[in-house]
Amino acid sequence: MVIPKKISNSYDVAGFNNKKHLTSLGNFVSKIGENSRVLEIGVGFGGSTWELMDSLPKNCELHSCDTFAMNHPQLVNRHVNGVLEKHSNNTAIVYQMEVYRTKGQRSCFDWAVKQHPRYRSLMKQVHQCKSLDVLNDDSNWDCVYLDGHHAYETVSQELKLCNHVPYMCGDDYHPAHPGCQQAISEWIEKTGRHFEHDPFDTGSGFWYSLLRNK
Questions:
Q1: Which residue in 26, 30, 122, 179 has the most C-beta neighbors within 10 A?
Q2: 30: helix, coil or strand?
Q3: Domain that holds residue 62
Q4: Residue 202 belongs to a domain with what CATH number?
Q5: Percent of the chain with pLDDT over 90
C-alpha cells in the first residue's frame, strides 16, 4: 500500500478535475457574502468540495449532496484506470483510488475532504441522497454549485428550484454535455438572470449566474 502525501490543494484530490474550472469556481465563490449557506450538488471524489472549502468566505455553511452510487465494479475500474493514467505520480491520488476501489465512493470522498483544515468549521452536513430531495426540503440557499446528474430533465428540475438563489454556478456548460447545456440555456432565457461561462476551448465547463440585482 502506497504511503500518501498530505493533500494540500484541490489538485491533490482524485478525479478528472480541470484546473481552469477549479480556479473559476474558487474565484466565484470567494466573492459571495460571509455567513452564506452553500449547497454543492455532486461531489465526485471531493475536488470541488476542497476548492469550495479553500475559497468560501468566513463563517459560511457548506452542505454537500451526492448519492455516492458510483460503485459498480466496471465503473470503479474505469474511473480508477482513467485517474491513474493522469496522476500516477501523486501518492495522495493513488491512495485515494485504492480507498475507492476497496471501500467505495463515500469512503473515498470522506478520506480526502476530512483532511481539509476548514472541514470542521465549514461542512455542516453531507447529504447522501438525490439532489431534488434536498432542494425540495430546503430552498434557503445563498449559493448553489450544480454538478450532479447531467440529464436534461434532472438539471431542468434542479434549476427551477433555484430561481431565487442569488449565486448559481456549476459544471458542464459545454457541447460535450448537450442536455445539461440546453437546460441551463433555457433556464437563463426564462429567468433573465445574468450569465457567464468559461470558453469552450478550455474544457472547463464552468458557468455562473446572478440575480440581476447582484
A1: 122
A2: coil
A3: 18-68+117-210
A4: 3.40.50.150
A5: 95
Same domain, 76 and 34: no
Contact between 49 and 127 (Cβ < 8 Å):
no
Q: Please report, to the nearest 10 degrees, the dihedral formed by the alpha carbons of residues 25, 29, 31, 36 taken in order.
A: 170
Helix, strand, coil shares of the chain, percent, nearest 5, are: 45, 15, 40
Contact 174, 199 (CB under 8 A): no
C-alpha cell at 173: 456548460
Flag whether 13 is in a domain: no
Under 8 Å CB-to-CB from 41, ≥6 apart: which residues? 65, 66, 131, 134, 144, 145, 146, 147, 148, 158
Q: pTM for the full model? A: 0.96
The amino acid sitting at 194 is: H
188 pLDDT above the threshold of 60: yes
- Mean pLDDT (the chain, rounded): 96
Average of pLDDT values for 65-90?
Answer: 96
Average pLDDT score over residue span 42-48: 97
The bridge status of strand 37-41 relative to strand 194-197 is unpaired
pLDDT at 88 over 90: yes
